[in-house]
């Protein structure tokens, strides 16, 4: 009997096809794990059991007819709560959307529905995807399954945690500065950020439009690839989505790898450096050519990001004004009402970023701040282009350290921003990047490695990641969450 | 105190917004419609719901290209869209997607005629943007005593072309002529219904007043809420007067926006804060840069019709006076077409003009008809006009026949002949008749010779009665007078 | 530049009402962040062509065709207050 606890999407599909188990059983298993884990983890904001079991029945009918919709038919996935799912609440973990019911589906959700995917529920995040620990959720934080005193990472903390314990076989998150890769790293799962524009943003509640991308969490790179293939593709409803042929590059042992010098020095924990070097040695043993490369603009990455992202978000979040949807506070005039609504409805980090962004765009400051950041971003893009002439993939830590404790980084905003050091560059350049778990540290918290590749090489990167996974042989599972009373 | 001898010169710039008659909105596929029911033509994008994205309308870009070329503007091939950030309840995203530093059209001009004088009004820019929703302030009588505001977003997202002139207009009359001319152009190139009463074409005026010898322009005041050409003229004159009075008293003019109050016939200050707003423009990251090809531009201006200026010049060349040419150049298309068709049928151009715009339109107006009777064309109408021009029928007979021609298709020559309306111009025959009449009217002749000129008409009438065919009354009178005196 | 930073003015532009505690805390937070990005603002960078889209693609325009969006009820479904088919808000000044 297949152990549903450790099953991958690929295996689950085979199991359903061969009738080893039913979609109903598979879904039930997810909800059972959810029932066991939610009180500790608080990873889901809502569970959609009735709808899920009904969908599972539809899958089972199709299985009998030999008519399955594809690799994701009957597979239970969870969705980050900043993606619109029609008829369901979408809160972005914010008070300002506590009562908002989506009247439409995000394109990625629509595509998953067309594939027969089962939706387990909506997962917790840092409010409006702003944060690196899920501590900024207005509905309470999510805990790290490997040790519930530790954060799961953010902003897609919930989506990472559910895959880590198995209450979903995969999930969707969003990544603007590392919000998929960083929590994937902290939770010991695979987290993939696609090439900017390869997955539609229509229906993803925008944080920073030129940086946001929807991407999958999964147990394996192959599973991540299955989800990516289902959700990617040109969308006429998203003017930034791509209609370009993908590019394929070297995979396996013939791939040339570059170690990013600037991400192996200052700011990176010693034990993380050691782990990355261990993985590099394993790759070299397989025959991969590994060299050191330099991306000097990496040092400016956090500054660039923390000007561009807040600027864009200050405009993207202007629509939350209590007029047409969401929270509405009191006020004698509509301006007063909106001023109070936004004061009450937004948390501290969101306010911080909106104010920072507003300032960066305001008269007299545009050139020095936002304008300058745009120019610097072009330099980052150029640097990556140059480096990719010499290597196929870049390797670095996903995060400067393994997971940190609750409250450890909340006193100084800059400290929290530093957690994005390794992940931000890929968002600035628009290139695909993935985090793969490699081991656990002395405290039992997962290590990971980040791989990056040129734009449009998503499939190659995912295939190469499967190769790395095999070499590394990570096979651990979190257990501490079960022991917590 | 000494009276300063100031020679104050007004400077006016006009900002016009034109609603395009596309089928769908600027950034989404919702219907463009003047609907009676509120909030029926909406989608996540034009309602500003979270997660929605804008995709620009191709036809709208074609139309703005067309109007820009018609105004002799330079076309910006590499354009982009910007976010103009400000909060207002009828602006769903609380930013308007507009164009800032790369508008589609720059430079260019529009010819106007005022008091039989041509001038070219220089255009600063032509750019693309989206319309807002509509606000209805209810409860109290005026804006500042309203109890609540109702919002309808049907209009939100409709494509708007904004055309800004350089500050080169000098009088209210010029401003009115400019709007009239622009409106005609916009109708001729078929990009807008341009009905002022429906708000398809709206305008604001920027007015400043300065001393004749000053190098700089005076403080600019924006005047809004002028809903007709009459109110435009009144508002401009009032504002020039208001500013002049202030300057004469050596008082400061505040840079602000004022509303034209039709009832009170004055401009009222609206903004509590003086100076200009900080819109924090930045390139919209949801919309990649436009790159309009030569082919696109050629396609967009294909079939551009004869523009008013060229038409005017052509009519003058044909022989009309400036004001006549201007008058008919602005008439409805069917009137112009008929006039030209008539003229081709060898009538005198002034006759063609006078009969078409004068008698024909006058008769149709009395019948409450505003369109051309189907059977009326250059051939039959021209034939009728020629009969009058050649003195074959009198002008009044001509008008009677026209009435018949309006009702049904006929040949005026045949009609006049069969009804004995053709005037006899044989002098000998006429003189014979006159002699017969005069022989019987000795008394009357004596009285005429004594000064009773009015009695000549009696003799004319007697002669006409005797005739078996129509006589030209002017000729008869002439011959009678010759005979008597 | 950071010294001139007036958070109340920025909050007005962003339409967020701040209480006195927030004014203090957020001012401090933003000054810390701004001093960090100061290094970037002083950097001399080539005035090369800046693209908004990281892959530098050109816009593909949409055909002018009408498609059904939300029906009236769907559009109004999240309205905090409505009246006669309109969204209702406290009075807004022009």
If you had to describe this structure to a student in words, what would you say it looks like?
The complex is a heterotrimer of chains A (485), B (485) and C (94). Chain A is of the alpha/beta class and 485 residues long. Chain A has a single domain, classed as Amidase signature (AS) domain (Amidase signature (AS) enzymes, Alpha-Beta Complex), CATH 3.90.1300.10. Chain A has helices at residues 9-17, 23-41, 49-65, 107-114, 157-165, 181-187, 221-231, 270-286, 301-316, 334-345, 348-361, 367-387, 413-417, 424-429, 458-472, 480-483; strands spanning 44-47, 76-80, 118-123, 170-175, 190-193, 213-218, 256-260, 289-293, 393-396, 433-440, 446-452. In chain A, β7, α8 (270-286) and β8 (289-293) form a beta-alpha-beta unit. The mean pLDDT of chain A is 96. In chain B, α4 (229-248) links the parallel β12 (221-224) and β13 (257-261). The mean pLDDT of chain B is 90. Chain B has 485 residues and is α+β, with helices and mostly antiparallel strands. Chain C is mainly alpha-helical and 94 residues long. Helices cover 37% and strands 6% of the residues of chain C. Chain C has three helices and two strands; from the N terminus they run αααββ. In chain C, strands 1-2 form a two-stranded antiparallel sheet. The model of chain C has no long low-confidence stretch (mean pLDDT 90). The chains are: A alpha/beta (485), B alpha+beta (485), C mainly alpha (94). Chain B binds chain C through residues 22-24, 28-31, 37-47, 55-61, 80, 87-90, 94, 135-137, 139, 143-144, 146-153, 259, 270, 278, 280, 283-285, 287-291, and chain C through 13, 15, 51-53, 57-59, 61-67, 69-72, 75-76, 83-94.
């Amino acid at each position: 009997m297949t152990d549903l606890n450790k099953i991958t999407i690929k295996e689950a599909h085979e199991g359903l096809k061969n009738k080893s188990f039913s979609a109903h059983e598979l879904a039930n298993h997810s909800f059972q794990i959810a029932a066991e884990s939610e009180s500790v983890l608080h990873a889901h904001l809502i569970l959609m059991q009735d709808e899920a079991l009904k969908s599972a029945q539809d899958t089972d009918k199709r299985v009998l007819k030999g008519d399955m919709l594809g690799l994701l038919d009957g597979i239970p996935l969870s969705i980050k709560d900043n993606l619109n799912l029609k008829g369901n609440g979408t809160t972005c973990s914010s008070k300002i959307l506590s009562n908002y019911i989506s009247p439409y589906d995000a394109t990625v959700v629509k595509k998953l529905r067309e594939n027969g995917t089962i939706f387990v529920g909506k997962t917790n995040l840092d409010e409006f995807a702003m944060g690196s620990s899920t501590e900024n959720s207005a509905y309470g934080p999510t805990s790290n399954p490997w040790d519930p005193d530790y954060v799961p990472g953010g902003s897609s903390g919930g989506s990472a945690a559910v895959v880590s314990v198995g209450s979903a076989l995969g999930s969707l998150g969003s990544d603007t500065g590392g919000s998929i890769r960083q929590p994937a790293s902290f939770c010991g799962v695979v987290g993939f950020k696609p090439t900017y524009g390869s997955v539609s943003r229509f229906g993803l509640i925008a944080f920073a439009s030129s940086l946001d991308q929807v991407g999958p969490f999964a147990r394996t790179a192959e599973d991540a690839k299955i989800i990516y293939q289902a959700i990617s593709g040109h969308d006429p409803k998203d003017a930034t989505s791509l209609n370009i042929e993908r590019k394929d590059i070297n995979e396996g042992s013939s791939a040339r790898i570059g170690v990013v010098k600037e991400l192996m020095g200052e700011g990176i924990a010693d034990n993380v450096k050691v782990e990355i070097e261990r993985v590099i040695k394993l790759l070299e043993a397989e025959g991969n050519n590994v060299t050191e490369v330099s991306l000097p603009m990496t040092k400016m990455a956090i500054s660039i990001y923390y000007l561009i992202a807040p600027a864009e978000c200050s405009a993207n979040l202007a629509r939350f004004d209590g007029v047409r949807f969401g929270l509405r506070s009191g006020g004698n005039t509509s301006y007063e009402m909106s001023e109070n609504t936004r004061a009450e409805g937004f948390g501290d980090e969101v306010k911080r970023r909106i104010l920072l962004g507003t300032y960066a765009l305001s008269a007299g400051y545009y050139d020095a701040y936002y304008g300058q950041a745009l120019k610097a971003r072009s330099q980052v893009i150029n640097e990556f282009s140059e480096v990719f002439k010499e290597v196929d993939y870049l390797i670095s830590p996903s995060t400067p350290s393994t997971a940190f404790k609750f409250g450890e980084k909340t006193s100084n905003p800059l400290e929290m921003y530093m957690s994005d050091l390794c992940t931000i560059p890929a968002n600035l350049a628009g290139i695909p990047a993935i985090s793969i778990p490699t081991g656990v540290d002395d405290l039992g918290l997962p290590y990971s490695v980040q791989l990056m590749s040129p734009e449009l090489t998503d499939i190659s990167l995912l295939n190469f990641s499967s190769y790395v996974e095999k070499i590394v042989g990570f096979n651990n599972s979190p257990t501490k969450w079960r022991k917590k009373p | 105190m000494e009276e300063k001898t100031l020679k104050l010169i007004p400077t006016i710039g006009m900002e016009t917004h034109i609603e395009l008659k596309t089928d769908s909105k600027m950034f989404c596929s919702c219907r463009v419609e003047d609907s009676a029911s509120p909030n029926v033509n909406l989608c996540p994008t034009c309602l500003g719901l979270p997660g929605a994205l804008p995709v620009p309308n191709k036809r709208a870009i074609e139309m703005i290209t067309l109007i820009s070329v018609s105004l002799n503007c330079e076309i910006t091939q590499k354009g982009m869209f910007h976010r103009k950030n400000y909060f207002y309840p009828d602006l769903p995203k609380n930013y308007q997607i507009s164009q800032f530093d790369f508008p589609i059209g720059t430079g260019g001009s529009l010819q106007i005629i005022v008091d039989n004088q041509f001038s070219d009004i220089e255009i600063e820019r032509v750019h693309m943007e989206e319309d807002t929703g509509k606000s209805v302030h209810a409860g109290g009588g005026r804006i500042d005593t309203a109890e609540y505001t109702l919002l309808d977003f049907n209009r939100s997202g409709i494509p708007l072309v904004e055309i800004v002139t350089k500050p080169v207009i000098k009088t209210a009359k010029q401003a009115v002529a400019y709007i009239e001319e622009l409106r005609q152009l916009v109708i001729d190139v078929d990009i807008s219904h341009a009905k002022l009463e429906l708000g398809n074409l709206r305008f604001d005026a920027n007015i400043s007043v300065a001393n004749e010898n000053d190098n700089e322009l005076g403080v600019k005041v924006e005047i809004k809420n002028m809903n007709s050409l009459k109110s435009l003229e009144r508002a401009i004159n009032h504002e020039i007067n208001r500013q002049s009075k202030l300057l004469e008293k050596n008082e400061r003019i505040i840079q602000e926006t004022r509303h034209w109050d039709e009832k009170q016939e004055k401009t009222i200050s609206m903004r509590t804060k003086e100076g200009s707003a900080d819109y924090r423009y930045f390139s919209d990251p949801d919309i990649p840069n436009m790159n309009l090809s030569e082919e696109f531009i050629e396609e967009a201006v294909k079939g551009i019709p004869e523009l008013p200026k060229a038409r005017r010049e052509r009519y003058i060349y044909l022989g009309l006076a400036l004001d006549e040419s201007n008058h008919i150049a602005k008439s409805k298309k069917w009137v112009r077409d008929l006039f030209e068709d008539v003229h081709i049928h060898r009538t005198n151009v002034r006759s063609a003009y006078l009969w078409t715009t004068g008698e024909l339109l006058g008769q149709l107006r009395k019948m409450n008809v505003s369109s051309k009777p189907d059977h009326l064309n250059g051939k039959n109408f021209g034939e009728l006009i020629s009969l009058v021009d050649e003195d074959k029928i009198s002008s009044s007979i001509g008008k009677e026949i026209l009435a018949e021609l309006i009702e049904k298709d006929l040949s005026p020559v045949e009609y006049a002949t069969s009804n004995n309306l053709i005037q006899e111009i044989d002098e000998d025959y006429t003189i014979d008749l006159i002699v017969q009449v005069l022989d019987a009217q000795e008394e009357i002749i004596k009285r005429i010779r004594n000064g009773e000129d009015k009695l000549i008409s009696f003799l004319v009438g007697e002669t006409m009665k005797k005739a078996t065919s129509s006589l030209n009354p002017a000729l008869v009178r002439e011959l009678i007078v010759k005979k008597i005196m | 530049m950071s010294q001139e930073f007036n958070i109340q003015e920025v909050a007005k532009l962003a339409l967020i009402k701040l209480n006195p505690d927030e004014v203090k805390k957020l001012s401090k937070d933003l000054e810390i962040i701004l001093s960090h990005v100061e290094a970037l603002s002083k950097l001399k960078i080539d005035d090369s062509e800046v693209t908004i889209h990281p892959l530098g693609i050109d816009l593909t325009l949409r055909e002018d065709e009408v498609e059904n969006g939300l029906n009236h009820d769907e559009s109004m479904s999240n309205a905090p207050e409505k009246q006669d088919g309109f969204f209702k808000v406290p009075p807004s000044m022009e």
